[in-house]
Design a protein that fits this description.
Number of helices of chain B: 12
Distance between the termini of chain B: 77 Å
Number of strands of chain B: 4
Number of domains of chain A: 1
Strand content of chain A: under 5%
CATH class of chain A: Mainly Alpha
Radius of gyration of chain A: 22 Å
Number of domains of chain B: 3
CATH architecture of chain A: Up-down Bundle
Shape of chain A: globular
Shape of chain B: elongated
CATH class of the largest domain in chain B: Mainly Alpha
Number of strands of chain A: 0
Structural class of chain A: mainly alpha
Bound molecules: protoporphyrin IX containing FE, fe (ii) ion
Strand order of the largest sheet of chain B: 1-2
Strand content of chain B: under 5%
Radius of gyration of chain B: 24 Å
Helix content of chain B: 40-55%
Oligomer: heterodimer
Number of helices of chain A: 15
Largest sheet of chain A: none
CATH topology of chain A: Cytochrome C Oxidase, Chain A
Structural class of chain B: mainly alpha
Order of helices and strands of chain A: HHHHHHHHHHHHHHH
Order of helices and strands of chain B: HHEEHHHHHHEEHHHH
CATH superfamily of chain A: Cytochrome c oxidase-like, subunit I domain
Largest sheet of chain B: 2 strands, antiparallel
CATH topology of the largest domain in chain B: Cytochrome Bc1 Complex, Chain D, domain 2
Chain lengths: 463, 223
């Protein structure tokens, strides 16, 4: 395995940044979990830790997708990247902006008054979940994403090979960039605030990102098992098509109880309960395509790809659909059931997506023919089993909360502090297991292709 | 189906649904203002304070946010303003066991925040949050209840206090209060909590003497 175009190497920059942030995300995730048991354990309050946890996640997943795109586009267009200096600039600008935003969060965490509005704008933290990044950072993010889209578009324009995969990929990315804008203006009404906020959050994870995932899945299936382009692309169109048909109006499942008209109960209920279907197509597609594959060189890559398809369906599709009907959501809305779904969906759909892309493209970037995949498997099982248990634990906490707080009318704090205490303890323990898996992965990322093959060393210890 | 047909289905189908979505958005925007009270400057100032202190990083509001702390959209319907204000400005002074940190909220900001939360309480949320359907189980627990016990229920004491594991946590647990306080203290404290506990955040019990008497009787049974 080796790359055809030298400029594809830029992908590794983004991957490195992503991998480091992944580690940070999980470490602060464990702190957040411990704060459920001992709230005052750390100098930063829960809200700041949680902000770091979810922002690190969004940024590293985006960085991973950008890296993957910089790899895919030259390959599909059969040419070098249009401008390497611009691509490198975009990378470093992203790193610098992210660092500045993080320092701002920590500052505001230590001294909330530092976030006092200046001309009606909070300078360090917008105080809106996931899009906490302040307005000046929003502008930098938009510039970074536009530069990124521009470089890739110009690369495509060099050879004008409009393959389905890269067209869909760039389409998904453009949709992603556009859907950041509804989160960038202030509204005096909390209802409108949340209305537009969901455009960003929902239309990203159940629209744009899922389209990107569909395109990358098609690419990966071609790479690992040499599937035929015509077939793969046709199914890709059908999958991402159904993602959009169900996902756009599926936004309605967030408009049941925030002050919006009642017809959203029908629109959201009907369309969002169809959302798992395209995710099921993807699982079927992955299995059908890889079933008869023989002599797969990159076993780790194949493994992660298929696992991505499965856990995308389980986390987003199944754990999403259980609470998506208004009759159920009325009781579960804003409980730990939501957290359980959020974790399995992000892990299955996007963590595994980025990791599969890394396992499929990194060996080529590093120019190795084979690599020892034992660490890749070990980290996969540590992470996946731990995540499944975290999710089961939190689903349990959510069921107790829904029953005791929502159905019986017990006090929120009483349920959290007494009845759910053991679930919080278990989550923290499984969290450490997850961290161990991430640690193995990080080691593997830095060592892959840079150490001798196992066959050469008899009796190598297990990863 | 050819690849080209599949591609066109994807592109034009997506556009089709997006246009419907835009139409519904337009319709919704026209209806929202009628489903909520007017937004005054003070409501907006409260919303700014909400963002400034990142309350959403711990709480949900209208069910969205974080799940570390209670939902707040309808909190002003459940608890008196005086108590809430004191809590906002210094949670641990009201309830030593509180997990909410002292954020440095000023008196003016606290007033604004409560005006803002009054606004959210009046938003038409299609009936959310629903009334607990098993609530009766929590009340008397099948036992014959005394007059004092019924007053305790109807006056919302259990929003702040816990008796035998049921009720709120912001005031002290009352399960054994009958063995630590006497009749005079309890009755006096009900009439004017601040005279007995400096800076107490407990609201005065505005009720006729007979009711206070019955509440006190009930308290004294808790041993
Ligand atoms: C990869 C795709 C998905 C991801 C990453 C994802 C992630 C999330 C996250 C993080 C939240 C919580 C948002 C918050 O903080 O308030 C959420 C909420 C929700 N998701 Fe998903 N989701 C995905 C797909 C789906 C699908 C396919 C469905 C339905 C079939 C679904 C149904 C829901 C519902 C109903 C809620 C609202 C929960 C509540 O009322 O509190 N999700 N999702
Ligand atoms: C060591 C493993 C992890 C632990 C202990 C952990 C812990 C936590 C905690 C305590 C919260 C706050 C939940 C609340 O407000 O009640 C949270 C939120 C969140 N975490 Fe994690 N986390 C971990 C790993 C991950 C991973 C790998 C992802 C995704 C890739 C992730 C994505 C999220 C998201 C999306 C939220 C917001 C959830 C929502 O609003 O529903 N976490 N996490
Ligand atoms: Fe959604």
């Amino acid at each position: 395995m080796s790359i055809k175009y030298q400029s594809q190497k830029i992908a590794e920059h983004f991957y490195t940044f992503a991998v480091i942030l992944f580690l940070v995300q999980v470490i602060v995730g464990i702190i957040a979990a411990v704060q459920f048991i001992k709230p005052d354990i750390f100098i930063l309050n829960f809200n700041t830790i949680r902000t770091l946890h979810i922002n690190a996640m969004v940024v590293w997943l985006l960085a991973g997708m950008m890296g993957a795109t910089y790899y895919v586009v030259p390959e599909e267009s059969e040419t070098e990247i249009w401008s390497m200096p611009l691509a490198k600039f975009q990378f470093w600008a992203t790193v610098v902006a992210t660092t500045a935003v993080v320092l701002g969060y920590i500052w505001m965490g230590l001294n909330p008054q530092a976030n006092s509005p200046i001309m009606g704008i909070t300078p360090l933290n917008e105080g809106r979940e996931y899009i906490e990044a302040p307005r000046w950072a929003d502008v930098l993010i938009v510039i970074s994403v536009l530069t990124f889209l521009f470089v890739n578009f110009m690369t495509m324009l060099k050879t004008k090979k409009w393959t389905g995969i890269q067209g869909t990929l760039i389409g998904g990315l453009t949709f992603l960039a556009l859907m950041y804008l509804p989160g960038m203006f202030y509204t005096k009404s909390m209802v409108k605030d949340q209305f537009w906020w969901w455009w960003v959050v929902h239309l990203w994870v159940e629209g744009a990102w899922e389209v990107i995932a569909g395109a990358l899945l098609a690419f990966m299936l071609m790479k690992v098992v040499g599937a035929k382009r015509e077939v793969v692309e046709k199914w890709m169109y059908i999958e991402v098509g159904f993602v959009m048909f169900t996902g756009i109006l599926g936004t309605g499942h967030h408009y049941y109880w925030i002050g919006t008209p009642g017809y959203w109960l029908w629109v959201g209920g009907i369309f969002s309960s169809l959302e798992p279907l395209p995710l099921l197509f993807m699982v079927w597609d992955a299995f059908r395509t890889t079933r008869d594959a023989r002599n797969v060189e990159n076993r780790a890559g194949l493994y992660y790809t298929v696992a991505h398809a499965i856990f995308n369906f389980v986390g987003a599709g199944l754990w999403g659909v259980i609470h998506t009907l208004p009759q159920v959501n009325k009781w579960t809305h804003g409980t730990q059931i939501t957290t359980a779904h959020g974790h399995l969906a992000f892990y299955g759909a996007y963590v595994l997506l980025v990791l599969s892309m890394i396992y499929i493209t990194l060996p080529a970037i590093r120019g190795v023919k084979e690599f020892n995949s034992s660490r890749a498997f070990a980290s996969f099982w540590w992470m996946t089993i731990s995540m499944v248990f975290i999710v089961l634990t939190i689903t349990g906490a959510g069921m107790v909360q829904t029953y005791m707080e929502r159905l019986m009318g017990l006090d929120y704090v009483a349920v959290k502090a007494n009845y759910n205490l053991w679930f919080w303890i278990l989550r923290a323990i499984f969290g450490v297991g997850f961290l161990y898996g991430v640690w193995i992965f990080v080691l593997d990322f830095f060592k892959l292709g840079r150490e001798p093959m196992p066959a050469a060393i008899p009796g190598i210890e297990k990863a | 189906m050819t690849n080209k047909a599949a591609r066109n289905l994807f592109i034009f189908g997506s556009l089709f649904f997006f246009v419907i979505f835009l139409g519904l958005t337009f319709d919704t925007m026209g209806k929202l203002d009628k489903r909520a009270p007017e937004i005054t400057e003070k409501v907006n100032a409260g919303k700014m304070a909400w963002h400034k202190y990142d309350c959403i990083g711990c709480h949900t509001i209208l069910g969205n946010g974080s799940y570390f702390a209670p939902e707040l959209a309808k909190i002003t319907e459940k608890k008196p303003k005086g108590y809430l204000k004191q809590f906002l400005m210094d949670p641990k002074a009201v309830n030593p066991g509180a997990s909410m940190p002292k954020l440095g909220i000023t008196s003016e900001e606290a007033d604004n925040l409560l005006t803002f939360l009054d606004w959210t309480a009046q938003v038409d949320t299609n009936g959310w949050p629903p009334k607990p359907i098993l609530a009766s189980a929590v009340g008397a627990g099948g036992k014959e209840s005394s007059a004092g016990q019924r007053l305790y229920q109807s006056m919302g004491c259990s929003g702040c206090h816990m008796i035998n594991g049921i009720g709120g946590t912001t005031g002290p647990d009352l399960s054994r209060v009958g063995s630590t306080r006497d009749r005079a203290w309890l009755a006096g404290h009900f009439r004017d909590p601040q005279a007995y506990v400096p800076k107490s955040a407990m609201p005065k019990v505005e009720a006729p003497d007979a009711d206070i008497e019955q509440l006190t009787d009930y308290m004294l049974t808790l041993k």
